[in-house]
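Q: Structure for this?
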Amino acid sequence: MPDKTDSTAAALTKAPIRLNAAPRNREEAIRAVGRLLVEAGAVAEPYIDSMLKREAEANTWLGSGIAIPHGMIGDKIYVQADKVAVLQVPQGVEWSKGETAYLIFGIAARGDGHLAILRRLTRLLQQPEQLRSLFAARDPAAFHTVLAAPAEAAEAAAEPSAQDLAEVTLWRLDYPGGLHARPSSLWIEAANAAGITLQVRLGDRVSDIKSLVSLLQLGAKCGDDLYFSAQGAQAAEKLAAFLQKVRALSAGEKEQARLAAARQAQSLARSWQPPSGRAPIIGVPASPGLAIGVIRLIAADEPEVEDKPLPPEQSGVLLQQALAATRQQLQTVIDDVTRRLGAAEAAIFKAQAGLLNDEGLIAAACRLILAGRGAAKAWALAVAETADRLAALDNPVLAGRAADVRDVGKRVLANMLPSRAGGPAAALPKGEKIILVAEDLSPSDTANLDMAHICGLATAGGGPTSHTAILARTQGLPAIAAAGGNLAAAKTGATAIINGDSGALWLDPTESDIAAAQAEIARIQAEQRRQAEQRRLPATTPDGHNITIAANINRPDQAAFALDQGAEAVGLMRTEFLFLERSAAPGEEEQYQIYRAMLAQLGGRPLIIRALDIGGDKQVPYLNLPREDNPFLGRRGARLLLHRPDLLYPQLKAIYRAAAGGSDVSIMFPMIMTVEEIIQLKDIAETIRQSLQAPRLPLGIMVEVPAAAICADKLAAHADFFSIGTNDLTQYTLAIDRENPDLAAQADGLHPAVLRLIERIIAGAALYRRPVGVCGGLAADPFGAILLAGLGVDELSMTPRDIAAVKARLRRTPLSYMRDLARQACAQDTAAAVRALDHGAPAAETGAAAPKAPAEERPE
Ligand code: PEP
Ligand code: MG
């Protein structure tokens, strides 16, 4: 008797297929696919009516354009052979309200063969690109390939063999942090590109190199011997090429470990200690800051997920939808963290997003659904089982990933069960400053914390890169992580001091410790208050030089906050955000209304509107731009604007119309490389201006390409102003992709090469007396800001939250000092040497014990 796997594979690979069908409605579609099954000898005629009856009772919509009609359980007598028939409907047929089916899989199965087939189809839902390719495929073979091959691979992933494959190579893992999520994701990418079966074995544990979870479950530590093996065409060559990529990651991994160790040593040496000298509980610094509070333990236990079984296909849809919603939410977190904290910090969220596509995890949930569990229960069980296995591994980095698996699990659950959205910290007492102590806190829990009452976080698990730590940093909440079993000594009600800079928690501190901590907190707060109070004062240096401080904002509703934070203008309105997260470009009228609203909010203050800067990291699906191998080096910014008048013209018209009332508006073109580009863009702008009889507006450019920086003297003849985009200027000068988390630590805008280019840009602009601003991230770093001012920049534009600290630094630093500093910075060998010139704010101005600059460099 053939085994079930074989018969399932046969049912799929030998499926009768009708391409290009055009049923008018669902009933016709079911009849047509039923007819295919009858003609293939798989079912008797009455099975078609049974399929219609089944549909009337429960919709067989599976999701993502697929429906899976099949007969009633009681009608299996009409099934003569397990078979799937496929009806392809390229134009789609409405299946249920708002759902259009493009592929209809009619299923005939005896016994539980139906479930095995469904499992394979559910997997197909996790491969949206392959799925879409089938919607209009012209060759039935395409179906056989897609339906059979990935499923076979997935089976292999679920039950890997402890045997090595045909070609074997041994490699000793030399990543200091072991095989954790980031390199694992890169292995998977490389393995997918190799296009053959690859596996890795550690002792008797084997993992297919397609599943993140299964790779993490190997628990491979630095120094472990890994046996990589491959089979398939050119297995030896492909295995060698794959291993080359695996080895190439070693340098980055070692650099990351070195940087982390250096950071920790630095923070320990510099940070606050209590006078009693008593020993703290030591964890890992997760988010800086000092706080005194009362310990509250919160239980990690969550209420059981209730099991509510539904027909498997409905549960499949629920899971599919929750996974899709979670993917979108995580993408928002990735974008937010990348912009606020950088690509390195966002990397962990990307790895977590990868877990949402993890075949091992999803297959485990599907198996449970098919075994009769409801979607939420199946998912909760699959997550718990996976996380428990990871947590049991003898490797702290990987054990930390268990928290990520659980967190992703919670996010998905919250999308299936709205009652889960609150988290365990929801019911904490009010009225006292609380240091929360938990085994682990999920980011979702962290996001729900009431910041009015919580002053610190300490977790036994997690780590400095855990999602929770990153969210704590974005919220300014002191946090320590990975404190382990020592945290057991922390009891609810005890007083404690937490220092997120050094990763320390002091329980039951002495009175003098508390007094010293209070004094230090008071000093930090006084400085922050002073900055906040003075945020609306101009950034005028003690020797009377003024620098304009502007905000980078995207929409009119952000203007009020920017002004409140002390912005004197908008130095960069990133208009591409008006084009993102929608299905069609905003037209001229819509844009006009937005620019008018922005001007109204600014009440006469200057506004620089940047023309659309699409491309690179900002992609807009509905513009149908061709895929580029190197989008940062491709048609982006001005190059795209000149290529797409349909985008440029309406935008320029809208801006000129909005400025017609005599407002202080400037237009800025992004990613300018050549004089020709400016001339062409200015010609277009002038034609539009004349057609509208609008006033002339200053037309400036962003200088963010080394070519433009080097030829700034030439460009200055044509541009009314420059704004330096240090984010891009840094990536192009140092040839480091601004999105690459492994290189993020080296992508430092304070590199002397970048500073020398800025010096050159300013010199070029001076020839024509053109004002120069900086709107990249360097302007928001107080030390970067004084360097830029010292180099001669007139305006600094930044995210509103950074304004107070930048203004405070500028207001206490004489221009003469900044100029001297800038000269010294340009003469340094490395970015680290430039940073070492930062001796902090002068003590006399902060009124506290800030580190002192050497006498000859001190501003006063
Ligand atoms: C820059 O490159 O520094 C800049 C401000 O532009 P964006 O970050 O939008 O590319
Ligand atoms: Mg840029």
